[in-house]
Structure formats: structure tokens, C-alpha cells
Write a structure and sequence with these properties.
The protein is α+β, with helices and mostly antiparallel strands. It has a single domain (11-171), classed as Peptide Deformylase (Alpha-Beta Complex), CATH 3.90.45.10. The chain is built from 3 helices and 7 strands. The chain has helices at residues 25-40, 128-141, 152-171; strands at 45-47, 57-60, 73-83, 87-94, 97-107, 109-115, 121-127. It has a 5-stranded antiparallel sheet, sandwiched between helices. Strands 4-5 form a two-stranded antiparallel sheet. The relative contact order is 0.19.
Length: 172
């Protein structure tokens, strides 16, 4: 089931998400819903706070090549264990900040640990777009948006555009 995505500014996007204590069927359904929402958007990552749920859960799939099999990752309580000194700069966007993009510099490689949908602990090293995406989604769990990396003027300009978009959406 697709879920509505919160649009910035929304106070729920600025809160630190609560850790997931144990995996319930409800949380697994949420993860499935989030994947459906992300693929439909279309996007490559989505965090539970973006669908209004206070839980440390992200879903990502950075496979974009035509004909390549998708690789959906469901990550409960994800954390970055290590990150490289080397950085990459990607033009980032966000499903909660539609049609707005900006270059953000982050560590080029990260090692992440999380609990998968079966309850198993997983650790994996990521680089390139995967590393950027995972850091972006974990930021959401900390109440941080990609625009928080930008200068004040650019951030305010994007926020004003989102406020206008929300007004227009409310008028329907």
C-alpha cells in the first residue's frame, strides 16, 4: 500500500526517530509499504519519518540500470560504523522536497550495520551512490534533511518553494 509522503517543512521531519525494539508484522508491512511508495515516487530511498512514522527504518534501492534486478534493502536501526576520509559530491534530491536538487558532499564510502526484515544483523560496506543514499536516509532518522547541508539563503529559498507547494496542494 502506497503511503503519503510528508512535504518539508513538517515538524515530524525534524524529529529524531525512535529505535525499533522488535520486529512486528506491522513493521514488516510498513517496510513493504515504504518500498512500494519509494518505487512509485520514483525514488531510491525513503525513511519512516517521511511517511509520518516515528521509527528508525529506511528502505533503499540504488539499482538504476535498465534490465538490472532491483536490490531493495530494508534497514531497521541502521547506523554508520565507519566512513572514508575521501568524499563524493552528488546532486541530491528528496521525496519530501520534490523537484529541488543541490550538490551535497559526503564520505565516499561507509560501513553500515542494521537489522534486516528477518531480524538478522547485517553489516556491509557501500560506496558511490549507495553510500550517499544510505547516509541521506540515516540523516532523516536524525531529523536532518539534505538542505541542512546548504547555505542559509539556498535553504530558505527551497523552504519557501515547499511552503508555496503545500499551499497549492491544500487548495487542491
Amino acid at each position: 500500500m502506497k503511503r503519503p509522503i510528508l512535504i518539508h517543512p513538517d515538524p515530524r521531519l525534524k524529529q529524531v526517530a525512535r529505535p525499533v525494539a522488535d520486529l512486528s508484522d506491522e513493521l514488516r508491512r510498513l517496510a513493504d509499504d515504504m518500498l512500494a511508495t519509494m518505487y512509485d515516487a520514483p525514488g531510491i530511498g525513503l525513511a519512516a519519518p517521511q511517511v509520518g512514522v516515528d521509527a528508525r527504518l529506511v528502505v533503499v534501492d540504488c539499482v538504476k540500470e535498465e534490465g538490472e534486478s532491483p536490490r531493495p534493502l530494508v534497514m531497521f536501526n541502521p547506523e554508520i560504523l565507519a566512513s572514508s576520509a575521501e568524499t563524493n559530491t552528488y546532486e541530491e534530491g528528496c521525496l519530501s522536497i520534490p523537484d529541488q536538487y543541490a550538490e551535497v558532499t559526503r564520505p565516499a564510502e561507509v560501513e553500515a550495520r542494521w537489522i534486516d526484515e528477518t531480524g538478522a544483523e547485517r553489516t556491509e560496506a557501500f560506496d558511490g551512490l549507495w553510500a550517499t543514499c544510505i547516509q541521506h536516509e540515516i540523516d532523516h532518522l536524525e531529523g536532518k534533511l539534505f538542505i541542512d547541508y546548504l547555505g542559509a539563503m539556498k535553504r530558505q529559498m527551497i523552504t519557501r518553494k515547499m511552503q508555496k507547494l503545500k499551499r497549492e496542494m491544500a487548495r487542491g
